[in-house]
Amino acid sequence: MPDLFSPYTLKDVTLRNRIAMSPMTMYRSTDGLMNDFHLMLLGSRAAGGFGLVFAEQLAVTKDGRTSVSCGGIYDDAQIDGLSRVTSMIKDMGAVAAIQLGHTGRKGSERKPWDGGEQLPPDHPDGWQVVGPSAIPYGGKYKYPVHALSKDEIKAIHASFARAAERALAAGFEWLELHFAHGYLGSSFFSPLANQRTDEYGGSVENRARFHLEALDAVRAVWPERLPLTMRLGSDDLNDAGVQFDDAILAVSMMKEHGLDFADLSIGINTDAMHQVPFDELGFMLDRAARLKRDVGIPVGTSWNLGLPALADKVVRSEVIDLVMLGRPALANPHWPVWAARELERDDPFDLVPEDWSWWLSNLRAHPACVGWPVNNPPAMDKFDGL
Prior knowledge:
- It is built from twelve helices and twelve strands.
- It is α/β, with parallel strands linked by helices.
- It has a single domain, classed as Alpha-Beta Barrel (TIM Barrel), CATH 3.20.20.
- The strands form three sheets. Strands 3-4-5-8-9-10-11-12 form an eight-stranded parallel beta barrel, surrounded by seven helices.
- Helix 1 (36-47) packs parallel to helix 2 (79-91) and helix 3 (150-170) packs parallel to helix 6.
- It starts with 7 loop residues before the first strand and ends in a 25-residue tail after the last helix.
């Protein structure tokens, strides 16, 4: 029976444990480039014990970014910065993962802490957003959407393939396509955004065509020995949108097109969601268990799995194969070590690099003062008079 700290092998890649740092957009790039900030962020999480470390979603085209401050992999000049990141991640014992995406009709934004509103196409930091149909998302995403032609769809798929080639050159060993959260792939899958009448719209099979063709384009250049995965918007939480049964059928088709692993999330193709579960522990687990059972494909998910006991339990019960952590990874770069201590693993420090492990395991100090949480902190009475 596996547990949270068991190695995990997919294709020719073995992770040292089942803990993955999810991709998170950080708005720290210039011209789509990775820099010292990304080296620090991702390298420290690898050093902190994560088995799989994702860079943020990297746009396959310049207008596929969320904002002008977001990362990209649409230019060969971006490979060097990415190579620095992958080298550091590997040196710290983790596997470097990349997520390729295109934000579609949810692009051309200000940074969230600057208001996050969508910028018009004629703004210096804005551009014309695109989608399957000329339907704006709504709310803060209010500007007209250009409906992609078939030739433009093929061009985007070619951009995914070129991005995958750059990812390989940069040293990534795990590749995920981001087709969730209202971005371009997610919007093609959703009837809320896709009202096309050609072969890319209508039935589930047609609405999944964008995904299948993207998989085919990437699989043609991405080595078979390396995992090809997808984050899928599997439920719009709206009666007129994607239903989870749609995702079951779509992932079954994707498996036939070379998909190795499904990273399940929700669609977020509308703000009009019912029974919004964002504060519920492990709310994607029932869907993940069903997909794994019905389709027979390895599965991971995120959304409120940051409690070590819960994360360990869902792996032990084989509900999911990997635990994807976003905010917990931001809050605590050593989350895996903390989890190992909480779960009373014999040697939690074996998750960090050998030199760090040696210093932390050979204490010349009060154990409560090393910097790790302790279950029974010492009494402080003797210092009351200070």
